[in-house]
Structures are given as C-alpha cells and as structure tokens.
Design goal:
2 copies of one chain form a homodimer. With about 350 residues, chain A is an alpha/beta fold. Among the domains of chain A are: about 1-50, lambda repressor-like DNA-binding domains (434 Repressor (Amino-terminal Domain)); about 160-290, Rossmann fold. Chain A has 12 helices and 12 strands. Chain A has helices at about 5-15, 20-25, 35-45, 50-55, 75-90, 105-110, 130-140, 160-175, 195-210, 225-235, 250-260, 295-310; strands spanning about 65-70, 95-100, 120-125, 145, 155-160, 180-185, 220, 245, 270-275, 290, 315-320, 325. In chain A, strands 2-1-3-4-5-11 form a 6-stranded parallel β-sheet, with helices on one face. At the A-B interface, helix 5, strand 2, helix 10 and helix 11 of A face helix 5, strand 2, helix 10 and helix 11 of B.
Chain lengths: ~350, ~350
C-alpha cells in the first residue's frame, strides 16, 4: 500500500461504507457494537490515525488527560496520582486512568493507542516506556509528560535518584558503618534505570569512602515487605553480616525490620536500617529514610501538562528535592559487631 | 418558568443561538472556550439535562465509567481502585477518576454532574452521599454502584462493618482482656456510618461479655498513624489504662504501636493492639488484624456496573467476607497489669 492510509482504506478493510467507518471512529451513537469493533480493528491494523475532524475532536477539545500507571495500590503511585488529580480538577480537566496489566494487556494498550484520541495529553506515572511503546505514543500526536521517572523523550518530573541513594548511604557511612548491605528491588513492570541509579550511588559512596563493595551484601528481591523480609534473612545468614542495611524503598525496609525483630535483634542496636520514600508508616515505625514528595511530583506533572496545552514553555526536567529524615532506626555500629548473635 | 427546561432556554440565558448552545453542550470543536463555559453555566443554573442526542452520546455509548473517590493515596482506596480498573480494562471500558476535594470542590462537582453525560455509569468508592448529592446523581440517569460503603439507594459492595469489628473485639475478649480501649477514626469526607457501626459492635461485644463500657477508654481521632499515636498517648495517661486496644484501621493501630514502643512498653507484653484492614505493612509489623479485601471489593463493584450496563440483574448488596488474622501483637493480659509502668 502506498501513500498514507485514509478512511476509505479502513472502510474497505472493515467491509463497511466510509460513512459508517467515520461514525464508528467518531464514537457516534447508533453504530452497532460489532461494527464499531470491526472498524476499530481495521484502523488499528492499518495504523490509521483518526483525524481530529473524523473523530469530532480537535486538538485540546476532549477536556481529558490520560494517565498511565503500572500500580494503583502502592503508596507512591496513589500519592502522585492524587497530586495530579488535584491540579487537573482545579483546571477543570477530566482524568482518565489506564492501569497497565500483564505484558499482553500492556501490549494491547499501546497497540490501541494511536487509533483513538481519547485525551488531550498523556502522563506516564512511575514507569519507563520502551522504543515500541514510544513510537505508539508518538502516533497519537498529543503532549506527553513523565512523572517519577526521567525519560529523555518527554518533559519529566522526577527526583535525583543517585542523589537520594547517596543521602541514605552517606548517612550510614557517617555513623561509622563499613559493612553496609543493600536490598535492591526489581519490578519487571518498571524501568530498571531507577534501581540501577540507586545501586550505582551505593557503589560510588562506598568506593569514595575507601571501602570495597562486597557482592554478598547486595540482595535483589521483588518489591514489597515480603521481599525485604526475605532479603534480610539472606543477609543475616552471611558469615559476616552487615551492621547496616540500605533498602531501595521504605516498604522493603519495613519488611527487613520485621525479620530483625523476629530474629531477636534490635534496630538500631544490632543492625541499622534506612529506606527511601518517607512512606506514611515510616514515621510510626521510627524508620530513617530519604523523603521524596510523591504528591508534589504528580502535581508538578499536572502543571507541565497544562502548560503544554496552553502553549506555554515546559521545563524538560523538573527535579523535586529529597531530604534525609533521621529517625531511630539508624545509629553507630556497636563495638565488636562481628560477634552478632546468630551470625554464623 | 413552567414546563421542562429546553435548549432554547439555555441558549437565551447564555446569550447565544440555539445552534451554538447545542454545539457547546455537545463538546464540538470550534466553539470558543468562553462561549462553552457560558453555555455550560447556563445549563447548570437551569438544571438542564443534556439529552443524549444533543450531546452526541446515547446511553451506554461513552465507553467510560466514572469513579468518584475521596482519597487516592490511602491503601484501601488505591487497592479498591486497582480492582475496579482491572475489571473495567478487561471489559474494554475506560475509567474516569474524580477525586473529591474540599467541601467547595465537592459541591461544585455534584452541581456540575447532571449537565454532562461523561460516563455510562458511576462508582462511588468508599464514601457516602448526602440527600442533595443523591438528587444530583439521579439527574444524570445512569447506573450507580457503591463500593466499600453500604448505601441503601444503590447496589453496594461492602464488608459487614459490625461483624468485622466484632471479630477484633471478641479476639481480645477471648484472650482475657477486660479493659479494652478503642481508637475511633473520623474523617469529615467519609460516611460516619462506618465508624458508628464499628463502635456499636465494640459496645455490643463488651456488654454481651458482661463488662461495662468505660467512655474514658474510647478516643476519637483523625484518620492516620498520627491520630493513632496521639490516641494511644491519651489512653496511656489514664489512671487505669487499657490492657488492649482495638483501632478502627491498621494505619491507626500502627501509630498506636509506635507510641507504645517509644514509651518503653512492649506489644503485646504490656498492651495488645489489633486493627482492621490487613494493610500490606501489617504483616511485617506483626500486627493482628481483621483482613478485608479492598481489591476484591473494587473488582466486584466493577462487575456490578458491567452487569447493570448489560441489563443483567444486579445484586443489591454484595458482602465481602472478612477474616481474623492473629499475629503477635495480641496476647493474654499480664497478671498484675494495673501496675503498668507509667500508668500514674
């Protein structure tokens, strides 16, 4: 097929008249569901881009912003979504939420994207997109903003991942710890760059302080308190366990604290623990952490989107500062800590 | 004005032609933003209901479900929203999320509702509506489902609030506790019926066991870990403090545990604590609780909505079972507990 795909091509493939194809793509009433589905499938297969006129929607006229999220029940995502929702509500915009599911659902979502202009802009919340997904996003021709992850292709609101991890590890180093464990969390749905940046900062900080990195002290687990609990068990099983642990998130750190308590060890008396986030349950657990403002990141992403729609200049990278919060889960190592009970 | 309000009335009030009013209400492109706003304001003031023809949307043809939520960053709401989003995605429906804001924003939201048919159905997530709000919801003429709160006016997916609280209090009674404190959480944005039901179950359980209810043992606080921390401090200040505490939610219970730890008291050695929810961070904190399935409640609400749209029968009340989860924050009271350190 040569030349750009047009409505007639879609109609022919779907076996309907161009007028019916136009109504189906415009989401008009009185089009049978099955006909609509056939037309949309044809449009998708041909990678037909519904023009604003055909869909009855000019640029910026749906009044809706779409946000794509991998998770809704985790604190960071919920808080960032709340910040975004508040800014958009104040601007009178509606918010469409798409939760990515398993890999097949995720693929279907991005494959369906170009055919429908359902929103005036898209916010990617807390995950990175691959090359294929980026090409699909480009085809819808609306503004895109990334929140929580720095993505070169789009204006991004994020934290300094290396800086945040460095704040945590430097705190442990300043307290006098030398054997510092790290619990890395991996999530196949999220961009691996975030854990990579945090891990790189750990290595840098140790080397800069003149200590070597012992690979046995680095444990990779799935995200969540269970992952943290298991990782701490693994670290306690070492012949020479760490005197302090840096976990990539507070939920994971709290799982590690649970394992220490069950093992009869004291925090920070026997082992210091620090996380990242300042989750609302970090304070009652007295967990030291590096606070990041999830609500603020979502709100700033909302402002970037509104600026883009208004034709105002949009900052390419907005870095939201993080802050070391010292509570009582971190303290200097005890003298003679090699004799940790249960250490071998 | 007599007779139903029609499009000409709206046009006259807005000072535009009926054709322009129709295009503005239909969200057509090429209508100036200010004109659109003037027309919508007139429609709102006259309580004009946009007909499916005028708005270009027949019943069931937007392909969108609207969910209204008071919070997005709290666990229950995020998990329930995730369950709802997953069911709707599988059905190919889009999800519009409206977060209620302060009272003024909430009022504006419900006042705007009837004028726009933006979704085929509405899910109320975790809050109750008052009479005014119910009348506004009725005017949009779409199906409504309530999740997390039992609302007589709508099909509801919920837990047995009294039953859940009874499971928690009965567990403490069975362990031999007599002086059982309760931390009630109040949220002005949420339906007071939920805390009322949980409190009533506490009173019933104590009276049934033959104990009297000491009003000094019941503390009302704002939701969250801070509220729980403060409430526990208040209970510890009593001349005869409780040997066990039932908190209306896990986050509040974990705040109470933090206060006990800082006071040098042991859980459950000095005071037992139990919550409701089975929050993901209850397990690593070894908190006993009554588990409710938030994700499942959202998913079932999604199924009720889809059934209603398909014209299938919808159950009026779906009660999702709760389950007592005994961890190590609850144990029998110590002998001689009247001599609690710090008890005055």
């Amino acid at each position: 097929m040569s030349g750009p795909v047009n409505l007639a091509d879609v109609a022919r493939r779907a076996g309907v008249s161009p007028a019916t194809a136009s109504r189906a793509l415009g989401d008009h009433p009185h089009v049978a569901v099955r006909t609509r589905e056939r037309v949309w499938r044809a449009a998708r297969e041909l990678e037909y881009v519904v023009s604003p006129e055909a869909s009855g929607l000019a640029r910026g006229t749906t009044g809706r912003i779409a946000v794509v999220v991998p998770h809704l029940s985790r604190w960071w995502f919920g808080a960032a979504l709340e910040g975004l929702a508040d800014v958009l509500r104040a601007a009178g915009m509606d918010l469409l939420v798409y939760r990515l599911g398993d890999p097949a659902a995720r693929r279907a979502f991005f494959d369906d994207l170009p055919a429908r202009r359902r929103a005036d802009a898209v916010v990617l919340l807390g995950f990175g997109v691959d090359g294929h997904e980026r090409r699909r996003l480009e085809r819808i021709g609306v503004g895109i903003v990334s929140a929580g992850v720095r993505t070169a292709a789009y204006p991004s609101v994020c934290i300094d991942e290396r800086g945040a991890a460095r704040q945590a590890v430097d705190h442990l180093l300043h307290l006098g710890h030398r054997r510092i464990g790290m619990i890395v969390t991996l999530d196949p749905e999220l961009d691996p760059e975030q854990p990579e940046q945090r891990s790189a900062a750990y290595t840098d900080a140790l080397l800069r302080a003149g200590y070597e990195v012992d690979p046995a002290l680095v444990v990779e687990v799935a995200w969540g308190a269970d992952g943290g609990a298991g990782a701490m068990g693994q670290l306690l099983g070492l012949a020479d366990p760490p005197t302090a642990v840096f976990a990539h998130s507070d939920e994971v750190a709290l799982g590690a604290v649970g394992t220490l308590r069950r093992a009869g060890l004291r925090v920070p008396g026997d082992v210091s623990v620090i996380g990242i986030d300042d989750h609302p349950l970090a304070a009652p657990a007295d967990l030291s952490t590096v606070a990041q403002q999830a609500h603020e990141q979502g709100a700033l992403a909302g402002r970037s989107v509104l600026a883009e729609l208004a034709g105002d200049p949009v900052e390419r990278v907005v870095t939201v500062p993080t802050r070391l919060v010292i509570r009582s889960s971190t303290a200097p190592p005890r003298a003679g800590r090699a004799e940790l009970p249960g250490a071998g």
